[in-house]
Amino acid sequence: MTAAHCWVPVPDGSPFPLQNLPYGVFSPPGGAPRVGTAIGDQVLDLSAIWAGTPLGADLAGGSLNRFLRRGPREWAYVRGRLTELLTGTEQRRLVEANLYPLDRVRLHLPFEVADYVDFYASEAHATNLGRIFRPDGEPLLPNWRHLPVGYHGRAGTVVVSGTRVRRPAGQRRGPDGAPVFGPTRQLDIEAEVGFVVGVPSAPGEPVPVGAFSDHVFGAVLVNDWSARDIQAWEYQPLGPFLGKSFATSVSPWVVPLAALEHARIAVPPQDPAPLPHLAEQQPWGLDLALEVRLGDAVVSRPPYRETYWSPAQLLAHLTSGGAALRTGDLYASGTVSGRLPDQRGSLIELTWNGRDPLRLPDGSSRAFLADGDTVTITGWAPGADGVRIGFGEVTGTVVG
Q1: Residue range 246-262: average pLDDT?
Q2: Residues recognised as catalytic
Q3: What is the CATH number of the domain that holds 34?
Q4: What's the rounded Cα separation, in Å, for the pair 151 and 161?
Q5: Conformational region of residue 353, where left means phi above 0, alpha means psi within -120 to 50, and beta covers everything else
Q6: pLDDT at position 108, please?
Q7: What pLDDT, in 10s, does the model give residues 304-314?
């Protein structure tokens, strides 16, 4: 099936061709939130397509969670049926009556976040931070190549793209070494990819690497905003806390794993070989290309394909101690960075902790974010028939 067979117009270069069909939650003008799928520059109301059925009831609320809980067989049925409706004449009038221009609807947080976990899965990112903070030591700590390092965030601070991000206040080290309290002076971004859990698991039963697609529905773009000076003061010995828990922005569209089949690749060589419970059973690295813009200026193009730990390995590690998955769990890759200077996914790397400020086209410079700055992250993956699968964007503006 090619994009040309879709009778709904899909503009050239659209992130949402027929081969994508991402899911989100939207409100039409004057209407209540409901589940939809993006096709071209329109959104189709799925609750109307399945109105009067149990599936329709699950699609009629302001969250994807009830649909996510249905599992892979139902996910595949809905995707297949949508493809039929968008390429054939059956029920065309029903579909046409429930299409809304994307620029006229309001997009919401697509799912209720149960738990949020952030990882540290990019070797380039971890190496860069090691060189910044431990210039005379080994960049990577001894455990890094043996397990995916991560921490728990706050689910309640996950917000949808477009939500303004208020500059957080907290303790940071003052000029004389004593702590002071006030707004962060080192507000940063982290370009990441997040994964959304649909099917829960039982407490005490680890999810093996090979069961990744039985539980995870799809992926989103993530900007895990960070207050570097607050983080630096508080993180020893227990790790990130207030410096990372004030806002995490996600894109409004969840791209299903089924749309990413053509993006699947092997992870980079892992040396030493992971312990058996973390060994990849099938390739779940992903060839995703990210782009970070500060205002109108592209400042980085991080390649997710170079990320050391796959999302399947992250899930297996997350549950290896017996933690149960819940519908709506979100876990993210951590900052995605590549080996080249213009592939770094955070300002702390791009400016080398402020030593080398970015020069922007308007003549200004940035070591870290200023009030009024807008950051936008976009992402693309190769899809079937040579199309590109887009994630839309995750954007946020800093306010004081």
Answers
A1: 98
A2: 125
A3: 2.30.30.230
A4: 22
A5: left
A6: 98
A7: 999 999 999 99
